[in-house]
Amino acid sequence: MVDYGKQFMLYLMDEKCYDNYFVEFDLLDGDCFRALLSKGLGLGIIAGSVLVKVPQITKILANKSARGISLFSVLLDLFAITIHMAYSFVNGFPFSAWGDTAFLALQTAIIAMMVLFYGGSTVLAGAFTVTYSALVYVLMGGLTPLNYLLIAQGFNVPILLLGKLSQAFTNYRNGSTGQLSAVTCFMLLAGSLARIFTSIQETGDQMMIITYGSSSFANLVIALQMLYYWNASDKQQKKKKAAAPATAAAAAPAATKKPKAKSKKTD
């Protein structure tokens, strides 16, 4: 039992930190604490990523509509996530540093397929699914050289910003966030912020740090829009409710007004 416990702890920390904590009982080692915190955050983000876009998917399914969701934004987001996933996998980075992108890629691909399907393009939805599956195989199956992935990762920041901010522009133009899920938006923001720390701690890769910093900024813009349009929609609902009684009162006299009887002429 002790061996299993040690093996689990050695997954979260190296041998030196294990000895510091459990042999020498030195609980104030700053480097070990940061490494353990980073690993714990990484695993927590991966666990959360399994369901992070499920509220968005269920909202589309429940309404049978993808109104207000920018397909352009979803596809750019999916491209950025997929390149980041392939780059991290081929580089051999720890799974705790990038594993959430695997689940995010799957869920984002499902959303893109649903946007096409509910937009009336059933054939395109099927073609997209096949094409994306083939792309993932090419990128992660050893068919794409690492230097090509590095170049693609360099384009991730402008692509990610363009994708996210195009969704923000769609929200602004529509005056609402449409079928966007608030839970998904805020979970994405929290995850991208935490990933800045884990990338610094576990990989030290400047490209990954810049990517997550840009993602955090774009997610923050959409999260703020979610709060703004949430309040705006509440005000509109209150105005409608307040106007309803007045409209009903104005309509009532007209509805109950009886036509005047014609007077009979007397000889």
Features:
disordered C terminus, globular, Monooxygenase
Quick structural overview:
The chain is mainly α.
Q: Could you list the spans in which at least 5 consecutive residues all have pLDDT below 50? A: 263-267
Number of helices: 12
- The 3D shape can be described as globular
What is the residue-mean pLDDT, rounded to a whole number?
Answer: 83
Q: Proportion of β residues? A: under 5%
Biggest β-sheet: count, sense, barrel?
Answer: none
- Following the backbone from N to C, one meets helices and strands in this order, namely HHHHHHHHHHHH
Structural class: mainly alpha
Separation of the first and last Cα atoms: 116 Å
Radius of gyration: 27 Å
Helical content class: over 70%
Give the total of beta strands.
Answer: 0
Q: How many separate structural domains?
A: 3
Description of the structure:
The protein has 267 residues and is mostly helical. It has 3 domains: 50 residues, no CATH class; 92 residues, no CATH class; 75 residues, Monooxygenase. 79% of the residues lie in helices and 0% in strands. The protein is globular and about 65 Å long. The C terminus is likely disordered. InterPro entries: MannP-dilichol_defect-1, PQ-loop_rpt. It is found in: Membrane.
Strand and helix layout:
Layout: H1 2-12, H2 15-22, H3 30-49, H4 54-63, H5 71-91, H6 95-98, H7 100-118, H8 122-140, H9 146-154, H10 156-174, H11 182-202, H12 206-256
Helix pairs in contact: 3-7, 3-11, 4-7, 5-7, 5-9, 5-10, 7-8, 10-12, 11-12
